[in-house]
Design brief:
By secondary structure, the protein is of the alpha/beta class. It has eight helices and six strands, in the order αβαβαααββαβαβα. The protein has a single domain, classed as Uracil-DNA Glycosylase, subunit E, CATH 3.40.470. The strands form two sheets. It has a four-stranded parallel β-sheet, sandwiched between helices. Strands 1-4 form a two-stranded antiparallel ribbon. Helix 1 runs antiparallel to helix 6 and helix 5 runs parallel beside helix 8. The radius of gyration is 16 Å and the shape is globular. It starts with a helix and ends with a helix. The mean pLDDT is 93.
């Protein structure tokens, strides 16, 4: 394992001590995880994803927070289990676009979700990036708040999402800074206003695009593809 990635994974353990924040790489979702090794599986998948981009990444797409349909079970930002399991091949999104040399694994209960979780944001983001024809190993997806904030009072519990509080976003700043140090020469693209705000607080130069959720898919796709086309030119 890359020492830099290993160090980064270790600091992710220090997420907020909260009844409404789930740490995919060090917590087990007792109601919805399948294997007892689920956190370890997610940690390994994130490790592979990052390590295989250390020397190739050119762009960092930073969204707001992990969602229950995506990184909560896959361990990778804006990436669903269905992508990892090959169930979006009909959309030309393949597991090998995420990482290679190891078979991806699911962590959600297969008897509840036979095909694993799917996340609309993940599908739109990966589909948009692949549409432009850019090498997916030139892109790293991440979240300004790297853990999963959920609503404990919600009927679905951990299978819910919420917006991180201002205090949580401030808490996450050192973790975002540590992530950015893994990829020091990459251009930043903020996905959504909250992400852009945090990057600005860190005095970082970034371009902002519309988040694909809540009817923003077309605008996200148009803005993102324009940005990547412009900065992918020789």
């Amino acid at each position: 394992m890359s020492k830099a990635v290993e160090k980064f994974l270790k600091i992710l353990k220090n997420g907020p001590v909260s009844q409404s924040v789930f740490n995919p790489w060090f917590h087990r979702d007792l109601e919805n995880d399948g294997p007892s090794r689920s956190p370890e599986i997610r940690r390994k998948q994130l490790q592979l994803y990052l390590e295989q981009r250390i020397n190739t990444a050119r762009f960092l797409l930073i969204a707001e927070a992990v969602g229950y349909q995506g990184g909560h079970f896959s361990g990778i930002a804006m990436t669903s289990e269905r992508i990892l399991l090959g169930h979006l091949a009909h959309k030309k999104i393949y597991p090998s676009h995420v990482f290679k040399n190891q078979e991806p694994q699911r962590t959600s209960l297969p008897e509840k979700w036979p095909q694993g979780f799917t996340e609309p944001t993940a599908t739109i983001v990966w589909g948009s990036l692949l549409d432009i024809g850019i090498d997916p190993y030139q892109i790293v997806l991440w979240n300004a708040f790297p853990w999963h904030p959920f609503q404990p009072e919600h009927s679905r519990g951990m299978l819910s999402n919420r917006t991180p509080s201002s205090e949580e976003m401030i808490y996450a700043q050192p973790f975002l800074d540590a992530f950015l140090k893994l990829f020091p020469n990459c251009r930043l693209l903020a996905v959504g206003k909250k992400s852009c705000s945090l990057l600005n607080q860190l005095s970082l130069d970034c371009h902002s695009v519309r988040h694909p959720a809540n009817g923003g898919a077309t605008q996200f796709r148009t803005q993102t593809l324009a940005f990547l086309r412009e900065h992918s030119r020789p």
